[in-house]
Amino acid sequence: MATAGKVIKCQAAVAWEPNKPLVMEEIEVAPPQTHEIRIKVVATGVCHTDLYHLFEGKHKDGFPCVMGHEGAGIVESVGSGVTNFKPGDKVIPLFISQCGQCRFCKNPKTNLCEKGWASDRYDVMSESDTRFTCKGKKILQFMGTSTFSEYTVVNEIAVAKIHPSAPLNKVCLLGCGVATGYGAAINTAKVEPGSTCAVFGLGAVGLAAVMGCKNAGAKRIIAVDINPAKYEKAKVFGATEFVNPKDHNKPISQVLSEMTSGGVDFSLECVGNVAVMRSALESCVKGWGVSVLVGWTDMDDFAARPIQLIAGRTWKGSLFGGFKSKDAVPKLVNEYLEKKVKLDEFVTHNMPLAQVNSAIDLMKTGDCIRSVLSVSPQ
């Protein structure tokens, strides 16, 4: 590529400060350093975690930044020491790295990694180091990825090389939302054939959890949401029943308990709300019920009565669906190409990067499942 080794000037949506619309700016993207890859971003989804940082977390040290962490693109150039990637490769940048060397990477029980922003910077949600500048200021790279930019630079331990025929405007969703919900059901909850499941929250993550329950062989999949318009979509992914908490004058856990002779085998909270997390736990059957926290939040404490766990329920959390990122994402792309995993059905809106604020508004109001932004032409 003619741009290799040079600073690239390109368009990016910059979050200068929390609670404000993103601004399209020309930014400078430095060449990749040792073990880094510069990627031309072709497409990106807009995920609730982007909104969380902008409107809920609002950590002052996390701005200015370029957000976006659910993208796919093409390698533009590589830094020294990079041998497994070459210009032209199709890739998905990963917000969870997989160095392969740390004690977490070597342990099959987890997908965490000691390298990268996620090890100790959950509050600001980015590394202090960055390859971006704009108007003379350092611009942080949100979650290490920054896919709301035409170009980004990512360490090779946080990049997955994918099948060359993969459509980037679909497989980008495997960079976060779909992998997160799907894996929470199959890897973290370990949903069993013939079981009864409840999924709370029917955004992209929740619908992917429904798909995971279905693919794992669940017999009943109860979709729970306060927006009845979501039910038809949930049926596409395998939901067998729908419950709207607003239709009942008793706690949703009681409603589900009555529907299931004492509670569901597995529940997944895909909202990121501590009150819903408690409801999801209390909806599980005693003795063996498993409830998984999937929705991202670090704002409030959660609470439950100890007897809930003493009676045999398990309460656990899931990050990126428990998938070891570099290993799993290429396999998930192949499963999509083999029609074992749905992606197209999640995409309700397509728009250019310049309309990112419209995509954020759609997610705020719940009027979309996933908006995919076209960032650069392929």
UniProtKB/TrEMBL annotation:
Listed cofactors: Zn(2+)
Record-listed E.C. numbers: 1.1.1.1, 1.1.1.284
UniProt xrefs under InterPro entries: ADH-like_C (IPR013149), ADH-like_N (IPR013154), ADH_3 (IPR014183), ADH_Zn_CS (IPR002328), ER (IPR020843), GroES-like_sf (IPR011032), NAD(P)-bd_dom_sf (IPR036291)
Pfam family, one: ADH_N
Domain of life: Eukaryota
Keyword set, alphabetical order: Metal-binding, NAD, Oxidoreductase, Zinc
GO BP terms, alphabetized: formaldehyde catabolic process
Protein name: S-(hydroxymethyl)glutathione dehydrogenase
SMART domains the record matches: PKS_ER (SM00829)
Taxon lineage: Eukaryota, Metazoa, Chordata, Craniata, Vertebrata
GO cellular component: cytosol
The reaction(s) this protein catalyses: S-(hydroxymethyl)glutathione + NAD(+) = S-formylglutathione + NADH + H(+); a primary alcohol + NAD(+) = an aldehyde + NADH + H(+); a secondary alcohol + NAD(+) = a ketone + NADH + H(+); S-(hydroxymethyl)glutathione + NADP(+) = S-formylglutathione + NADPH + H(+)
Signal peptide range: none
Annotated family: Belongs to the zinc-containing alcohol dehydrogenase family. Class-III subfamily.
Enoyl reductase (ER) domain: residues covered: 17-373
A GO term, aspect molecular function: alcohol dehydrogenase (NAD+) activity
Organism this protein belongs to: Esox lucius (Northern pike)
